[in-house]
Amino acid sequence: MRKLLTLFLLICLTSLVNAQTTQYKLKKYNLDKFVARPLDDLLDTLSVNYKLKIVFERDSLHQFDVVDHFFNEPLNKVFDLVCSKFNLHYWIDYKGTIYILQKVDDMARLSSLEKTLKPITVQKPDSLPSTFSSQHRAEPMANAKQLNNVVQPALTKGTEKPLTQKLNQLPVNKPINLLVTINGKIIDQSSGMPLPSATIKIRNTDIIATTNTDGDFTVFKVPADTCTVEISYSGYQSDQFKLTTEKLSNPIVVELLPAFNTLNEVSIIGQKRGVMNTDVKKVGVLQLTPANLDKLPSLGEKDILRAFQLMPGVGATNESSSGAYVRGGTPDQNLVVFDGFTVYQVDHLYGFFSAFNSNAIKDVQLYMGGFSSKYGGRLSSVTEINGKDGNRNSAGFGVDLSLLSVNLFAETPINKKSSVLFTFRRSYQGPLYDKIFSQFNTSTPQGGGQGGPPPGGGQGGPPPGGGFGEQTTPASHFYDADLRYNYHLDKNNIFTWSLYIGADKTDNSRTLDLPSFISSSGSINITDITEYGNLGSSVKWFRQWNQKVHSNTYITYSSYFNNRNRGSSGLTTDVNNKSVTVNNNSIEDNNLKDFGIKSDWEWQTSNDVKLNFGGFSNFQKINYDYIQNDTTKLITQHTNALLGGTYADLEYSPNSKLHLQPGIRTTFYQPLGKLYFEPRFSASYQFSDRITFKLATGQFYQFINEVTRQDILNGNRNFWVLSNNNNIPVGQSRHYMGGISYETDQFLVDFEGYYKTLDGLTQFSITQSRPSPGESPTVEQNFYTGVGEAEGFEILVQKKLGRYTGWIGYTLANVQNKFQIYGNNYYPADQDVRHEFKSINLYHLNRWNFSAVFIFSTGHPYTAPLTTYTINSGDGNVSTYFNVSSKNAQRLPDYNRLDLSASYDLLKISGNKVGTIGISLFNVYNHTNIWYKEYQIHNNQAITTDVTYLGFTPNLTFSLRWK
Amino acid sequence: MEIKKKSITIFLFGVIGTLLIACNKESQTSINKLPVVEAYLISGKQLSVKLYYQKSLSDTTQYGSPIIGQELYVSDGDKTIELTETKKGTYTFSDTSFLVVGKTYTLKFNYNLVSVTAKTVIPPKNQNFSSKYVTVNYPGATTDKIDTLNKFTWSNPDSLNHVLVFININGTYTPISTKMSGFRERIYQVDTKRKSNYYITTSDFSYYGQYKVILMSVNQEYIDLVNSDASNSNTEKLLNMPTNVVNGLGIFTAIQTDTLNFNLY
C-alpha cells in the first residue's frame, strides 16, 4: 500500500513541485546577518545563495534601502518583512519563480517580460539536460528600466531534491507506446478539491478533453507516451507536463495553483463560450463558479441564481423571485438539483435571495433547454448545483458580513481519507432586511381586486397589523446550513454525504388592543407564524470501475415544508362588562417528501464515443392540510406518487468537427400507470476554429407543479401538487433550439433562437364558503388547465479578457398561454417580456474591482380594470364592479435599473487573497419599477396603487478567510 | 477590431429588426362601450329595465349615466313587447299581467350597431317560508361557543336556488359577540345552497335588533353574481363579474320574494 502511495505521489506530476520547492526553500533556509544595502542587491544575493529565481524591476527596487538585522529568520519571513516595509508583494508562480510586485497588476507585465528574455545557460549540471528551462539568466541590462532576472544557476548535486527537475524535464526519448489512453484527476493544490470542466489538451493535436464534475478525465488515442499535456482552468495557473511510460499505468493527478489575484477573468462563462471551459459540444449551457461572484453587485448576498439572471435567456426583472425564468419557463419548470437531490424551495425572503450559500458550492450549471436525457421531470430547464468538498490538506475558516446577514464557513481534513465542510448563514433584522421585508409585505386592498398575480408569485407575507390597522413589524429571519462530508475509501471509491437545510421564519404574533366600539377593555393575543423551507440530504458513491467506466450512485431525500399557524385567543370585556373568551385559529400545512435513488454511469469507449446511462426511482408524498379551529379541515390532500425510469445518452463525434448526442429517457408515473418516452437530440458542428453551429430538440414531461393559492388578506401560499387522472394533467413540452457562436481569444458572439410548445399547464384558485351552522366551511379548489408556447432569440457579445471584461445580452421573446377561463385566445403569459437588454461591465485595477450592471426590459403584462359600473343587487345593496381588460392585455412601464459595485481585495504580502471589502449600490438612480398594481373602490372611485420594487439601496460587504 | 465592429453591426441590426417586429397593442375600446343592464323581473309586477353607461375609474358618481333613447324589446316566447322609456334610462312595460311564473323572457335591443340580448325565467313562488322564532332573547356571547339563534325553513323539493336577505331596520347596531369573525353588513344576503333551511348563529349574525328577512327564489345568474362578489372572494385575480347579458354587462334576472320579521334582543 505504501509503495502504491509513493508511486501515486510520484506521478502527481505537475510543475507545482517547482512552486513547492521554492516554498520549501523559503521555509527551510534562514538568514542570520546584518543587512545594509539596496533591495535589488539583497535580492540578488538571496537568489545566488539560495538558488532562487527572483523577478523584479531593478530600477524601482534600487531606491529601497534595507537596513536590518535578521536573527536567523526563515527566508519567507525575510520576504514578508522586507515587502511589508516597502509596501511590496511577492508571489510564487507555478514554476517556482518569485515575483516582487509594487502594484498587484504588475504581475502580468513582469511575467510577460520574463518570458521574452532569452535564457542563457550559465552552468550545466551533469545531472540535468541542457533544456532546463528554469536555469537561465538575463543578459545584463543596459536599460535600467528593463527587467532583471537573476538566477543562481548552479544546482549542486544532492543539495536539493531534484524531483522537480526530474519530473518536468525528462529527456526526450523515443516513444515506447503509441495511441495511448490516459486518465486522471485535476485538483486544487491548496484544498485538494476536484476541479470540474478543466481543459486537457494534448499539445500539437486536436485532442481536447474536459474534466467531469468530479475532476476526472480520460483521453484516448494520445499519439505517443511522450506527448506534452496542457491543463487549463479558469482562475488557476495553467500547467503542462510531459507523459512518460510510467505515468500511463496509474491515474495522473494534476494539482493546479490558483491564479494570482489579478488574473481573474469574467466569472460567468458559457461552457461553450468561455476562455477556459470551451466545450463546443454542448448546447445552451451556462456555467458559473461562485468564487468570482464578489465582483458583481450584490444586495447583501453573493447569489448564484441571481448571477445567472444576467445572461440572456434568463429573466432578470423578477426581484420577487430568484427562481429562474428560463426562455419563457416559470421557476417551477426549472429543476434545481443540489448534490443529487431536488430542492423545492429555492429562495429566501420572498424570493429576493436564493437559498444557496455560495461558500458551499463548487460549481453550478444551468441547462437552458434541450438538455440531455440525463435530466428530466421539468419542462423548461435544469440547474445543477454541486457542493464543495472540504479542504483535504488544511483547515480553513471564513466569515462574510453584510448589512443583511452573517455567513460562516469552516472546512477541515479529518484524516487522510476524509474532510468536512460546514457553512451557516443567518440574516439579522437590520434596516436592510426590514426594507426588503416591508417591500414584499405591502398593505393589502380591502376591496376590489389586485392587478394580476404578482409576477413570481412570491410568498406573500402577512399584512402589517391586523384588521384594525395597527402597524407592527414582524420578527423574521432566514437561515441555511450545509454540511458535506467526504470519504475517500480508496482512489476508486469516494463517498460523500451532503446535508442542506434552509428556512424562512416570520413571527407576526402580537397583542391586539381592541377598539372601544367593540369592547370597553381587553386585548387579544394573535399568533401568526409562517415557516417555509427545504431540508435535503444525499449520500453519493463515486466508483471508478476502470479507466473507461465510472458511476455516481445517490440515495436522496428532500423535504419541502410551508406552514402557517394563525390564531387569536384572549379574554375581553364587552360593552355589557361581560368577559368574553376568544379563541380561534387556522393552520395551513403543506409538505412534500421526496425519497429517491439514482445511478448515473459514464462509459467512455473512445475519444469519439461516450455513453451516459442510468436509472432513477422516486417516491413523492404531498400533504396539504388547511385546518380551522383545530377540527375543521378545509383542505385535506394526501397524495403520493411513485415514479421511476431509465435513460441513455450517446455522445458521438464522427469527426473532430461534428458532435451528435441522441438520447432517450423513459419514466413510469404510477398514479397514471403510464410510461412516458422522452427522445432528445442535440448536435454541434464546428465550421471553423471560430464558428460553431449547434441545435437541440427534445420532448419533456413534468409530473409535479407548484401552484399558488392567492390570498389578498393573508398573503399568497405556494404549494406543490402531483399530476393526477382528474384535474391536474402531466405537463409536456417540446423544445426546438439552435444557434451560432463566433469566438476568438478576446471575444465571443453568440446567437441562439428557440421555440417551445407547452401543454398541460396548471393554474389554481380557491374559494372558501361561509359555513352554515353544524357544517364545515367548504373550500372549492379549481384547477385550470391550459396550453402555451414560447419563442425567442438571444444575442450575447462578450469580452473575455483584459482589464475590462463583460458582456451585453439582448433577448427578444414571446410567451403566451391559453386557459379556457380567460377565453379562447392566447394571451401574454405573466412572465412574458418582449425585450430584455443587459449590460454587464467589470473593470479591474490593481486590488480594485469595479462593476456596473444595467438592465432594461419591457414591462410585465397585467390585467387592469378599464372602467367600473354600478348596479343594484336584489337585496337592495348597491354594488360596484370592475370591467376588466382581457387577460394580461396591459403592460407595466418598462423596467430598468443600474447597479454599481466596488470591491477591494485584501492581500497578504505573499499575494494570497485573504478577504474583500465591498460596497454595492442597487438601483443607483432610484428608478421606480412597478411590481404590480392594486385597485380599490373608494367613494365610488377606483383607486390604483402601484406596488413597487426596491429603490436605491446601498450595501456593504466584508469577507475574511483564514487558513 | 474588425470583429468588434462586425459584431456590433450585427447586434444593432438584430435590435432594430426586432423592435420593428414587436409591439401590437390590443384595442380595449370595444369592451368599454358595452351597456350596463339592470333588471329584476317579478311576476305580477310591471317590467322595468335600467340601462347605464360604464364609469371611468376616476368617476365619483354612484351610478353611471343613463343610456337614453333605446328601443328595447322583451319577448315571452309568444309575444314581443316594446318598452317605453318612462325615466331617463329606465324602460318599462306597465301591463302587470305580462310577467308570469315559469315563462322565459328574452331582452333584445341594438346598441352601437351590436345586438344586446339576455334571457331569464321567472322562478316559482316560495312556499311555506317560516321562522322558528319571531323573537329571540340572547344574553350575549360569553364563550367562543357558537350559539344557534334561529332557523328559517321553506319548501324546496326541486332543490332550487334561494338567497336569504337580512335587513336590520334599527338605527343603532349593538354587536352580539366580540368574536373576530362574522361581522356583517347591515344588509346582507347568503346563498342557501339549494337547501330548504338556514340557521343563523352567533358566528355570522352580528347585531341585535329588528330584522326583515327576505327569502328570494333566484336563478343561477343571480347566484353567480352573489358568489363572485369581491368581498366574498379571496382570489386576487382580477376577473370580470359574471353576467348573463350578451354583448353587455350587469344582470337581467327574475326573482320571487317572501318576507318575515325577526327580532333579536
Largest interface: A-B, 83 and 88 residues
* Helical residue percent band of chain B: 10-25%
The number of helical runs of chain A is: 9
Major sheet description of chain A: 22 strands, antiparallel, barrel
Q: Give the strand line-up of the largest sheet of chain B.
A: 5-6-2-1-17
The major sheet of chain B is characterized as: 5 strands, mixed
- End-to-end separation of chain A: 31 Å
Q: What is the average per-residue confidence, as pLDDT of chain B, rounded to a whole number?
A: 81
Structure commentary:
- The complex is a heterodimer of chains A (about 950) and B (about 260).
- Chain A is mainly beta.
- Chain A folds into three domains: about 10-160, no CATH class; about 170-260, Sandwich (Immunoglobulin-like); about 395-440 and about 465-960, Beta Barrel (Maltoporin, Chain A).
- Chain A is about 10% helix and about 50% strand.
- Chain A is built from nine helices and 53 strands.
- In chain A, a hairpin with a 5-residue loop joins strand 8 (about 200) and strand 9 (about 210).
- Mean pLDDT of chain A is about 80; it is low at about 1-15, about 120-170, about 260-280, about 445-470 and about 515-520.
- Chain B has two domains: about 30-120, Immunoglobulin-like; about 130-220 and about 255-265, Immunoglobulin-like (Sandwich).
- Chain B is about 10% helix and about 35% strand.
- Chain B has a five-stranded mixed β-sheet with strand order 5-6-2-1-17, with no helix packed on it. Chain B has a five-stranded antiparallel β-sheet with strand order 4-3-7-8-16, with no helix packed on it. A five-stranded mixed β-sheet of chain B has the order 10-18-15-12-13, covered by helices on one side.
- The longest helix of chain B is centred in the first third of the chain and has 20 residues, at about 1-20.
- Chain B is globular, with a radius of gyration of 26 Å.
- In chain B, about 30% of the residues are buried.
- Chains A and B meet through strand 30, strand 39, strand 40, strand 41 and strand 46 of A and helix 1, strand 1, strand 12, strand 13 and strand 14 of B.
